[in-house]
Amino acid sequence: MEVKSLFFFLHVGLLTLGQEILSSPKDSTVFLHEFAAFSCWAKGDEVTWKLNGLLLKDLPPELRKELIFNTSSYNSTLFEELVIPSKPERNGTTVQCLGVKIDGSSAESEIGTLIIQGLLMAVINLRAKGDVSSVTISWTAPFSLNVTGGDRDIWYSITIYNVTEKYYPTAIRCTDCTYISETHYTFTPDHLSPCDVYNFSVYPLQWSWPRREQWHYNLI
Fold first, then answer.
1. Number of domains in the chain
2. pTM for this structure?
3. What gap in Å lies between CA 74 and CA 66, rounded to an integer?
């Protein structure tokens, strides 16, 4: 009786330990039109996935054909990477991997989420305020896709042209204006001359055209 009981519990234990998730997919934040990669380490006979709670076989065909899989194995551990194109309609997609045994039993991972941070359009509300000691420009950076929870850093570049002489605009050198993480920047008299007119161009370091605005900087 004891031998049979021991065999039963050992058999159940082996079935239970046959599949296991070792590493779950994490939230992935990417820009629009990039690729998001989710990885999974598992024990079992194969790795498969759920997107928005649906198994791969139940996904719409147009989504299924976009997915890319990279698979490898190390001893008894399986690794698979799922790559998803970051189209607007994929924003908020939940991703879960499963370690599956040949008998159909499976272990499910924690859920990761695809967060798509939209491309920045040209900045708007570009404004300048100044006094005798400095000029501060500020702007609003709208996304082409509304996103909450994105963590991708956005950087801006500013160029300045002295356009006092209409036909001979002169570029003003500003070594600190290339990588700016805030939506404002302050210029001092080291950058600008009194009573001249300037064009400021501000654009995100992605793919968009800048918006320009003139400002008359009057240093008394």
1. 2
2. 0.58
3. 27
